[in-house]
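Query structure, 310 tokens:
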């Protein structure tokens, strides 16, 4: 039936569906933010992340891209904190404040990419092993158990040693060694979802494995995946700093871990040049803590949807 403006009832329904979906998403985001704001630790973590993320984004404008140039350093070697250099200078005379800001770009980027890779691997293995069961699940879980009992940092160091030194190597080394916890959690949630009646109805109506996993299982495990991602980012940042401190990352890239490695080579610990060590060390600790606080807050907000008591 056509109305006066030439549209049918079916067309109006199809037009209203995207609007209704967008409205539900906005309402869900607003509800999430209202619940998140009740967690003071989560707000503190979010504020700390913004304090580091905003300067990292604007680093080319704030400190310039030549901040790591050793041939035209603005100060003298190992100058203490002053009005000209609030964080002092390194062994080459470079401004440590600018280096910390510039290094935040690499540390945050590597941590984020490594966490995404880790969660993607863990989610894929967790969902598929929880859905297919049988021999496939047994094999995947035994591999997961092997990675769980092996020291993550040792595996990451081994991979970073045999692969070319680059940021991609660091991301891969961290990502492929930190996924087992996510796989275990996602598999447990997948097994819980698979027992619900609508999964049986989807199978009875002819839904295949791909349809069930992508349309029914994955949306219900995504809140868990989101919370797990924020928690793993802090682990990835610490792992990146450790690899850089051990000299296993790209030596031409400035990161917080690389600054600590430079301070160690310059003998900052024994010579008492504390300003060489404290800024990057505090930055690593604060950002790792901030991501952990945000992850815990997100986990508590999403717990009711996961069927877990808060």
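Result returned for the query:
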């Amino acid at each position: 039936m056509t109305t006066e403006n030439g549209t049918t009832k079916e067309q109006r329904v199809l037009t209203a569906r995207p609007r209704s979906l967008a409205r539900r998403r906005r309402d869900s985001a607003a509800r999430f933010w209202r619940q998140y704001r009740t967690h003071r630790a989560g707000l503190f973590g979010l504020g700390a992340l913004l304090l580091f993320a905003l300067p990292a984004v604007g680093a080319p404008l704030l400190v310039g891209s030549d901040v790591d140039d050793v041939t035209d350093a603005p100060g003298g070697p190992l100058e203490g904190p002053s009005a000209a250099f609030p964080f002092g200078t390194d062994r080459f005379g470079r401004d440590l404040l600018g280096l910390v800001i510039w290094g935040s770009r690499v540390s945050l980027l590597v941590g984020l990419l490594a966490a995404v890779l880790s969660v993607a691997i863990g989610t894929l293995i967790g969902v598929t092993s929880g859905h297919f069961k049988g021999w496939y699940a047994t094999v995947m879980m035994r591999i997961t158990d092997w990675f769980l009992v092996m020291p993550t940092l040792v595996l990451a160091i081994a991979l970073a040693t045999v692969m070319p030194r680059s940021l991609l190597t660091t991301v891969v080394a961290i990502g492929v060694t930190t996924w087992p916890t996510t796989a275990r959690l996602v598999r447990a949630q997948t097994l819980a979802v698979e027992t619900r009646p609508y999964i049986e109805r989807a199978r009875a109506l002819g839904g295949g494995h791909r349809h069930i996993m992508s349309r029914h299982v994955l949306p219900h495990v995504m809140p868990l995946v989101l919370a797990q991602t924020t928690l793993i980012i802090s682990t990835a940042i610490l792992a990146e700093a450790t690899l850089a401190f051990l000299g296993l990352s790209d030596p031409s890239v400035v990161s917080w871990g690389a600054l600590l490695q430079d301070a160690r080579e310059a003998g900052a610990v024994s010579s008492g040049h504390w300003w060489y060590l404290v800024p990057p060390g505090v930055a690593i600790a604060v950002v790792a803590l901030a991501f952990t606080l945000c992850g815990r807050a997100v986990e508590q907000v999403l717990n009711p949807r996961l069927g877990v008591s808060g």
